[in-house]
């Protein structure tokens, strides 16, 4: 059965300015796949994610993400590409001066939603998906770190993305809460959204056996094993 590719990179060279970080990357991720991205600090994981969300241009090679052609991606198209992506990064936290509801409303309004009823419904939908509807009126500081991360995931789901990119989403969490977050991301992938998750947490990788790709020695390797 032919799959439905949501990320397809062919012979892509990943540069940070003049420095070649990863050479000749070939990567295909299908709808609903769950993939771990591993590699030492500085090996190129974030750079690879940047290629995928249109923050770095591809020089050599070809790339398609959620039907956007990365090679010919105009700057003005980047926000539309990002709407197809849910981004869960550590440095992309909740706005601390407003409630969970207002955090989510802010993103919807910034991405073109203006019908109040649809906005309210969508906010409830995504909060249900992460099991936190009861926290809708709370401020970020009134909920735990794990709950905040679930809200960040809810926020990433607002525009029904084809792909979630998660960079160390469990970095600041205790082991039990980390497992809950990854379980949630797994469930999201099973409902059809591909998840690409960069992590250094081998306990998590062992607990949730999945496809692993690794950045090492200036290359991206498939079917990586952890020891
Ligand atoms: N903005 C930048 N300008 C120039 N070089 C950069 C820039 N960002 C990263 N690099 C370099 O590119 C290489 C890959 O960095 P990258 O951040 O992709 O690694 P990483 O695997 O994500 O590391 P970490 O696990 O620490 O996040 C490193 O040598 C880094 O110094």
Automatic annotation (TrEMBL):
PROSITE patterns: ABC_TRANSPORTER_1, ABC_TRANSPORTER_2, SIGMA54_INTERACT_1
GO biological process, one term: cell division
Pfam families per UniProt: ABC_tran
UniProt-listed SMART domains: AAA (SM00382)
Chain ranges of the ABC transporter domain: 7-226
Source organism, top-level taxon: Bacteria
InterPro entries, A to Z: AAA+_ATPase, ABC_transporter-like_ATP-bd, ABC_transporter-like_CS, ABC_transpr_LolD-like, P-loop_NTPase, Sigma_54_int_dom_ATP-bd_1
Biological role: Part of the ABC transporter FtsEX involved in cellular division. Important for assembly or stability of the septal ring.
Name of the featured protein: Cell division ATP-binding protein FtsE
Organism: Pedobacter insulae
